[in-house]
Structures are given as C-alpha cells and as structure tokens.
Amino acid sequence: MMADWDPRKWLPYPAALALFAIMAILYVFPVTQGRLLVQSDIIKFQGMAKEIADFRQETGEEALWTNSMFGGMPAFQISVIYANNLSHFLHKVMTLWLPRPADMIFLYFAGFFIFLLLLKVNVWIALAGAVGFAFSSYHFIILEAGHNSKAVAIGYMAPVLGAILWTFRGNYLWGGVLFAAFMGLQLFANHFQITYYLGIIVLMYGLLLLAQTIREKRLLHFGKAFAALLAGLVVAIGLNAGNFLSTYAYAPETMRGGTELTLAGSENPDGLSKEYITAWSYGKQESFSLLIPNVKGGATGPLGNNPRAMDAVDPALHQVLAGENQYWGNQPGTSGPVYVGAVVLFFFVLALFLVKGPLKWALLTATVLSVLLAWGKNFMPLTSFFIDYVPGYDKFRAVSMTLVVAALCIPALAFVGLHKLFRNPGLIDLKSKALWYAVAFTAGLSLLFYLFPKHFFTFLSLSENRDFQNLSTTDPMIAPQIRHFLDELERVRVIIFRADTLRSLFFSLGAALLTILLVSRRLRPGLFAFLLVALIILDMWPVNRRYLNDEHFVPRRRAEVPFPLRQADQHILQDREGTFRVLDLTESPFNSSRTSYYHHSIGGYHGAKLQRYQDLIDHRITPEIMQLIQKLQATTAVDSAQAVLPGLGTLNMLNTRYIIVDPDGEPVRNPHALGNAWFVNDFRLVPGANEEMTALEEIDPALTAVIDQRFAGHLDGLDPGEGGHIGMIHYQPNLVRYRSDAPQRQLALFSEVYYPDGWRVFIDGEEASHFRANYILRAMVVPPGQHEIEFRFEPRTYVVGERISLAFSILLVLAALALAGLHVRRTGRQASGG
C-alpha cells in the first residue's frame, strides 16, 4: 500500500485550502492586528441581543425570551444557541476557526472548491473556480453590512448542490451522508430566504434530470438517489430541530404570518405586501452589473468620493455636484452591485457550448430566472405570479437578493465547462463560434457600451428625472441652469461608467487570450491555471476593495462597545425600582437597537417582530408618539409635555417610564406608566381584533381591560372590584415572579407581551391559566388573598427540538463512521488481493 502512496496526488488539496486561508487573512489583514470589522447590522444585533448575551454569560443558560425590544419577543430569531446540533462543530471545521470575517471568506472558497471536486473537476480548475465564486462582489458587500447569516448560507449553497449532484451520479450512501451534513449546515445558517433560492436551483435540476431519466428508463437509479437524499434531508432537519420547530411555531405570529386586522392601513392578511417585497428591485439596465460593476455608479454615496471623475466637471458646479449621488439606479439605495466578474462571465458563455445535459440547462434557467425575479416591480407580471402562486415566495423581501442564484450558477457552469476544455483543448479552435460568442457577449458588449454609453443607458434615476423636471416646470426661468447642471451630472457619471466598462473590456480580452493560448497548445495547463487565478484576482479583488477594505476595521475596544453610554442612559440606569420600558425619541424608535442595548425598549430593530406588536405600532403607538412629539415641538419646556402623558394609554399600559428627548440631558419621567402589573375593576368583551384595537382608544387601561370574546371562558363568574395590589418581585427573561394581595377574585393585567406558545403561569406552584387582553398584554384571574404568581417561558419546541437534534447528531456521526469503516475494509481487501 505504501508503494502506491503518491504525495503529488493529494498535496494539491491541502495546498489549495492553505492558499484559501492565506487569501482570506490577507484580505482582512487588520484582524491580525487586533482590529475588528464594523458591521452596521452586527452593531444592531449587539443592541438587540445584549440582554440575551448577558443572561447567557451570567447563568450559562439560554434566554429564550427577551424584553429588550418591542415590549418583549421570543429570542429564537435573535440569538439562541442550540447546543446539541452537530453543525456547530462542523461549521468550525469548515471555517478552520479563523477570525471573523476571514472565516466566512474562507467558507466561500472551500464550499465552492468542494462543489467542483464532487463534480470531478480538475483540482487546479476547482481552485480557480473557488476564487472566481468567492470574490463575487455581493459576497463582500454583505460582510461589510454585517449580514453574517446570509454569508454563511451562501457559503453552503455550493456544497449542498455538489452533494446532490454527486448522489445522482451513483454515490448513494456517501452522497446521502454528505448531503445531510451540508444541508444541516445550510439550515444551521438560519437564513431561509437563501435556502429557498437554493431550492429553486435544486428543483430545476431535479425536474430536468427526472425527464432525462424517464427517457433513458433509469428510474431505479433515480429512485435510489432520491431516497438517499430524502433520508439526508430528514437528518439535516433533525440536526436543526430546535431552531426549526421554534421558528415553525413562531413564524405565524410574526409579520410573515399576517394580521387579523381589517382596519384601514392593515394590509395583506396572509403575508408581506407586494410593495414591501419589491421595495428593493434591481433595474433592468442595472443587471449589466454582472459584467460591469459601476454600470449604475456602484454604491450609494456622494460623487465627491470619486475625485478623478470630478476633475472633469465645470469648476463652478464642482461643490454642488460633489454632493450628488454616485448611484443612479432606481433602488432606494444600495451598498454595491452584484459583479460576478468579466473573466468568469466569459467562461460562463463559453461553457454554454461545451457542457451538455440537465446540469447546464438547470444552471442557465436558474440564472435567467434569478435576474428576472430580481427586477421585482420592474417586471411585475412574473413577480406577481410568484408572489400569488409560488408557495413561500411572499414571505421574503428584497427581491434583488435572488441574484445570489446567478452568482452561484454562473461560476458553477463556467468552471464545469472550463474543466472540459482544460482536459481536452481540442474541443474548440480559433474558428469556433463558442469562442467568439463569448468574446462578443463580454468584450464586444463592453466596447459598445464604452463607445456609445448614452445609446444604451440612462444616467439619471427615475426619481432624479421626475424631481428635476418638476423643478424646471415650476420655475421656467431656471430651466437653462438645471439643463447645464444635468449635463454636467451626466458627464461625470458617464466618466465613471466608461472607466469600469473599459476595465471589463480588458479583462474579457484577457480571458479570451488565455483561452486561445490553451487551445492552440501554446500554454501548458499548469501555467494556464496559474495565470487564470491571477487574472481573476486582478479583476475582482480591486472591485471588492471598494466596498470592504482596511478602513472598515477599528480598534477592538471601540467595536466591543457599539453604543457609547449617554447621559440620558446613565440617568435611567440609576433607577433600580423594578423593570420598565424606555421610548427614545432621539433615534428612529422602530429601526434602531441602541435603546435595547441598555434598556427594555418600546421599539427596536428586527425583521420578524410579532405581528400583534406591529399592529399596535401602526394603530396606537405611532399616533401616541406623534401626539407627544407635537407637544414637545410646541413648547420649549419639557415639563409642559407632562400634560399629554395621561392620555397616552398604550404607552402607559406598556409601562413606558422614561422618554428620551435629549441624549445629553435628563429624560422625561412618565408618572402615568402603569407598572409591571395592576388590577382593573372592569372589562369589556369585544367580538374580534378590529373591535379590540378600536376600543383601546376609548378606555382607560388603568381601570378597564378589553378582551376578545374567544377568551370569555376565563372570565366566568368574575365581578372584579376595587382594591388589592400586585407587583413584580423577580425578573429574568424566562422567569418573572409577582406577589398579589386581592380582597376578592380580581382581573390582573401584566405589562408583558402575550405569546401563545411557551409561557406557563403558576400560582403558589400550581399551574393556572392566562389569556390575552388589550390586544397585546397578558392577563389572568387572580384568586383572593396573598399569592405568588410565576410566569415561566418553557416552549416545548425548544426542549423537544434539542432532544431530536442530539439524536440526529449521533446518527450522522455513526453513519459516517460506519461508511468510513466499510471503505477501509474494502480498500484493505483490494490491497491484499482478497
């Protein structure tokens, strides 16, 4: 056996992984100097997860609920660790324990490398393919923004697809195990939108392969592979059972589940509205960013950031033009384009003529579909069809994200095709249409765009065109000045556009030259692979540095405390009298997690808040905030704003004790906040959600509760009166205790958000029942006398899910060990001639 051992056969694989690690570290070199990447979404995450992280550090337990945002919500989609999931360990192995974000960059490389190896692509072409896929600009843009779960999910798309293809090529047992592991990691990333898009690719390939299998009468083979993958999917879901079950129970209660309300302003009872889903729609012209990064100017930002382009404008307009937007597409804003690389796109077109079978058509169809779906509101017939008829599509927003499919499929097909050419350069020659179609689509288009930019593109956004036209119409006297301004604005944007068009032209021609040298046998395969990797890096690395570079890294101390402590925060933190909530008017209340970092907040930042709380924001909280702001704007004396506080019933019932109006001053203390719990002496039964919401405007929540008719059974024989006291005596996110003293059976309201799955209540250790009141609060009937009331958050989905996860983790390990053992025995027998 030792005689057959040849290091030249296996050495390229660890060498490639080492190269990936080196490139990942070099790209984010400041991490080696103790600096951390500032990611806007991670800063928001640190705010929303602070209470959860503190509780974990103090107790070693998981806070499955947090009161830091939106009055209180489950922590499942914020920061819950499911310790029994084997994917935790596998993910660390896949990322080599590298520091963030080098770990995710390495994952981009390694995941696509594995994908190509599973397709038996030459190791050096697989290395080049990994570089081409990893350096797609969107992958680095989301790292800068802090979309880490999305980045991880994207990193696992390729190996999941590779495991599926490998299984359908006859590797049933190992294919099933690999698919279970990689699909488990894909689900572990917890970004279901990316998983959904991966499903589109898989579905297309599966249908095309099934059709071919039926024609070839190989249904038994297809059935075996499908069974192995189905078993792997069950294991993958089992690994993530804790998160999966909790999310499954949670999703219907969130904005994704829709609202019960049919009041004016309450839209889309079954999911997200079309307007919300398509707010970020890629422009049709903008799709050429796949070839030319600055086809619409790149990222949102001032033109003054591009001094070379600004040098060409009229000096008299230099200052005003410097403040105009460098991005002239029609999205509300963007952090950068989806650029897959001129070199990669060249080989994608070439591969269309080299690759045959279902894989080519699946990757091509998925690419085209992803571009069309990314157009969103710019191509509503298709978008409306998917929203209305394709299951699950209406649960996701930002349709431009579908381009992750193109960013995977384009390099996948490109390097599968290049592998064929690498192994057999004689597949094409200098007269082949394939070669010249690839040149025409990349270099030819780039040249046309460079020579005639205004014939193919507009250099003003729709909103700019509308605004400037309105301005000219309103004041015809300034129309000539506006025309001159627009001419200069277009001129500087054309300069930016042509600069990137020229670079794409050169890199396309570079790819064509390498191909010509390969097929004419003037370049050795090894040197071709080396030059190809170098060309891809030269093409894509500088583009990515526009959006993620050393300037985004800061000293560790600054990054670890994302929100400096303000005087208003310090004043509030001195209040140790129970728990309460804070409304911060110096921030966007429902799009910031700053307040959540230090306090329990009325607002927060999260894309999957409870729908009932969103209803309350829309119909009660926002109007009360506007009423308060109007009062504050009408007077310079903060004390005079106290007059409006008694009428803010919803904020009061949510126990809003402090209102921050000046970050460097003393906050407004609200004496009318109703506290953690109180007894009411009356209640009003209403027939449904609309009436319940409307009644909140009419009642005094300190005296009267509004209760949906469906909970009437809890109130049988209740005749509440005055008197008694109830208050909080202990607080943890998952455990809250109260002490009550009532002269008779009383109706108690708690300023805690009602959630139907997981909260259990006990009176003196005996389980009791609670229900919902005032649309959002917890309520219960309390017996007379002195009692201790305890609310515990114990969702069975978490407990059961952890047990299932442990079982499937053990199963996956045993299956892998068993197959490894069989392989060793089989190899040993073959070596001994048995």
Judged by helices, strands and strand pairing, the structural class is alpha+beta
Largest sheet: 5 strands, antiparallel
- Dominant shape: globular
What's the overall average pLDDT, rounded? 91
Strand content: 5-15%
As residue ranges, the low-confidence spans are: none
**Fraction of residues in H or I helices:** 40-55%
Structure commentary:
The protein is of the alpha+beta class and 834 residues long. The chain has four domains: 9-34 and 82-253 and 796-834, no CATH class; 39-81 and 563-673, no CATH class; 265-519, no CATH class; 677-794, no CATH class. The strands form six sheets. A five-stranded antiparallel β-sheet has the order 12-13-19-15-16, with no helix packed on it. A hairpin with a 3-residue loop joins strand 17 (771-773) and strand 18 (777-782). The protein starts with 6 loop residues before the first helix and ends with a helix.
Task: Offer a few descriptive terms.
31 helices; globular; 834 residues; 53% helix; 5-stranded antiparallel beta sheet; alpha+beta
Brief summary:
The chain has 834 residues and is α+β, with helices and mostly antiparallel strands. The strands form 6 sheets. It has a 5-stranded antiparallel sheet with strand order 12-13-19-15-16, with no helix packed on it. A 4-stranded mixed sheet has the order 6-5-7-8. The protein has a 4-stranded antiparallel sheet with strand order 9-14-18-17, with no helix packed on it.
